[in-house]
Write a structure and sequence with these properties.
The chain has 254 residues and is of the alpha/beta class. It folds into 2 domains: 3-90 and 170-253, P-loop containing nucleotide triphosphate hydrolases (Rossmann fold, 3-Layer(aba) Sandwich), CATH 3.40.50; 98-167, no CATH class. The protein is built from 10 helices and 10 strands. The chain has helices at residues 3-6, 51-58, 81-88, 106-117, 123-136, 152-164, 182-199, 210-216, 234-239, 243-253; strands spanning 11-22, 25-36, 40-44, 66-71, 74-75, 91-94, 170-174, 202-207, 219-224, 227-232. The protein has a 6-stranded mixed β-sheet with strand order 6-7-8-3-9-10, with helices on both faces. A 4-stranded antiparallel β-sheet has the order 2-1-4-5, with helices on one face. β4 (66-71) and β5 form a beta hairpin. α4 runs parallel beside α6 (152-164). The two termini are 26 Å apart.
């Protein structure tokens, strides 16, 4: 599926010269980029490149030192905490660790975000929505189990199902294939594409895994030296790899 076959020219996320440093260490250096409607944008970079700081800035956990971050038309750097929370409900964050509550069943893990944010919805509606999301990721049979009973790949799928439970317009995936064997990683890549197709989401996929970037990304941005030094689709970058990406392609071929 090529990016220009389904995306629109409407930007749902924009970063305009966003900078962040800790002490003297510059993490983001006047970074500018855009995520378009129904696009899967991969942000590729090595460990320590600033990918995690970027994603925390996007959900308002870290405020940048300068620059603007606009999500669905709102500059989140200027929002009150109440306004920021309302915007966060439209942004689904799939954590690298899945971040499931160990003491809750899988059903309760998925029901929790609904109960926390919506006091109107009935228990029967909650059950219907949870069952739908679990069925979507192929894990309805796990709803009475605890996270400790599931494999790493199953936890990733449950994490994505929970992220979808509030019907977000934007998905943020933090290292979705980290720590998974190739077959399980491929399943997660397929699930990311299914989510994009079924829910018409716009997604940012943070990864250092080139196979994930290839499988899921309509467009790839290489985050180096704190800014988007590299940009293009996979085939363009593979055919003429910039110096920063040569090690990624060499590793992927081994």
């Amino acid at each position: 599926m090529k990016w220009n076959e389904h995306h629109t020219d409407k930007a749902v996320v924009t970063l305009d010269r966003v900078s962040k440093k800790f002490g003297q260490r510059v993490i983001l250096n006047e970074l500018s980029l855009a995520l378009y409607e129904q696009e899967n944008l991969v942000i590729l970079g090595k460990s320590g490149a600033g990918k995690s700081v970027l994603i925390k800035c996007l959900v308002g956990l870290i405020r940048p030192d300068s620059g603007r971050i606009t999500i669905l038309g709102k500059d989140i750097t200027q929002l009150s905490e109440e306004e920021l929370n309302a915007t966060r409900l439209q942004v689904g964050f799939s954590f690298q660790s899945s971040a499931l509550y160990d003491s809750m069943t899988i059903f309760e893990n998925l029901a929790f975000p609904i109960r926390r944010t919506n006091s109107i919805i009935s228990e029967s509606e909650i059950e219907t929505r949870v069952n739908e999301r679990l069925e979507e990721v192929g894990l309805l049979h796990t709803k009475d189990q605890l996270p400790s009973e599931l494999s790493g790949g199953m936890k990733k799928r449950i994490g994505i199902a929970r992220t979808l439970i509030l019907n977000p317009k934007i998905m943020l995936y933090d290292e979705p294939t980290a720590g998974l064997d190739p077959e399980t990683a491929s399943d997660i890549n397929d699930l990311i594409l299914q989510v994009q197709k079924k829910h018409h989401t716009s997604s940012i996929i943070i990864t250092h895994d080139l196979s994930c970037a290839h499988a899921t990304g309509d467009r790839i941005i290489g985050l180096f030296d704190g800014y988007n030094k590299i940009e293009g689709d996979y085939e363009t970058l593979k055919n003429n790899p910039p110096p920063e990406l040569i090690s990624f392609f060499n590793y992927a071929q081994n």
